[in-house]
Amino acid sequence: MDSTLKWKPPIDETERKVTNTITALSSLARAARAMSGAYRATSFPALNVEMHLLPVEQQIWKHNIDTISRVGIAEVFARRGRKMSPRQTITKRLLDRQDATNEEHEHMPPFVTPPWWQGPRIHIAEGAEKAEKEHQRCLEQNAGAAHIYADGSGINGQIGAAAVCTTTQQTSKSHMGNDTTSTVYAGELQGIVLALEMAQADKQNGNHRSKVFIHTDNQAAIRSSAKPRGKSGAYLLKIIADKTQALREQGLDVELRWVPAHIGIQGNEAADAAAKEATGWRQYRQTGARADKPRALFKLRSTVKTWSHKQSHRKWQTDWEAETRGRTSFHLTPKPTKKVLQAHEGLSKRQSALLVQMRTEKIGLQDFLFSRRVPGIANANCPCREGRQTVSHIPLRCRKYRQLRRQELGALPGRHNLRVILNERKAAAKAIRFIEQTKILGQYGIESQPRQS
After folding, report:
1. Fewer CB within 10 Å, N- or C-terminus of the chain?
2. What tens digit of pLDDT does each residue of 336-395 get?
3. pTM exceeding 0.85
4. CA–CA separation, 202 vs 199, rounded Å?
5. Count of domains in the chain?
6. In terms of domains, do 333 and 317 share one?
């Protein structure tokens, strides 16, 4: 009778999906154990930390956010009487966790300009000293041209852009939002946009100049402006290309030149200070008014990717602190970090597996084997009768290996602190060598056999 009920097939389908998901996650755990050489009793959270593997749930969340950022934000308001689609649900979670701003996410076209389009002329000298000399020569030989310095800066989580024209003594600034919207690279591009706008305004004011030189200290921005491609920040490159073409049609040639930063070039220093002030920063007081935002301002895909990376690792840290399993690994590594992998450098696969077992305390010693009710293990005590046979007891206190301990770990700094030993690469290698020479683990069942003639 139950099989004829209408609500039973959907429930069965849901249970099937849940079962498949659990099976898939279990297979990931088996793969991680196989790679690390850890015991089956090792908890998955501890294994993630020991191998620096982002937890599966955080990987899925990060993948969803990055995908939504790539394909575009969906309309989050469902029609009346209809549920949200999976894409709308993920979009809503993204917008809820991000700071509420009015900026739309950028759209990255496959190309910015036609293949035959010629970008502005660029000049990048080899080395700071040569660039400084060529910059001074450029000023002397092109006194009748317009010289504009562009810069972008990030300070206190805010991004600013500015352009300073030393020819007309004018300054233009833009606030590019916080670092979840723009990057310093985007600020550099916006600085070039402001410089082109200043050149356009100078042309409209009746000044007939033969050329405009835009000086900036960012080589990547110069090269991207000359050969724009469809990557993060493409909307700014499109604006630069359009304004460059407009000036070219009016008979004003544009040249982008690299100047080294922070070596005393007056225009560059002024542009750098103006870009910082655009964020509200002030040198002699805490804060001030921010510059206006440009009319075209979009969240960069690269900033969304950086944000999702930080958020997923922050959630991993929070979950690891609240986790009840793997507390032995937590005492050694309270914060998930890639530095945990440094202790494995130079170790063989067998030694690396032994290090993971020592750090998780899931290892073939009496204490662990007795807790797992392994047949033939009557108690957890060490044969020295001075306590349980644990990871800390053998290398630190067991009197049976006193001479070997003095030989292998005698001159080791922090040799009485297991956390120091297992977190430092050279100390961990010596501890592994010590455990191997005790042959307390049976050396993986390998026994020497007499040679037969």
Report:
1. C
2. 999 999 999 999 999 999 999 999 999 999 999 999 999 999 999 999 989 999 999 999
3. no
4. 5
5. 3
6. no
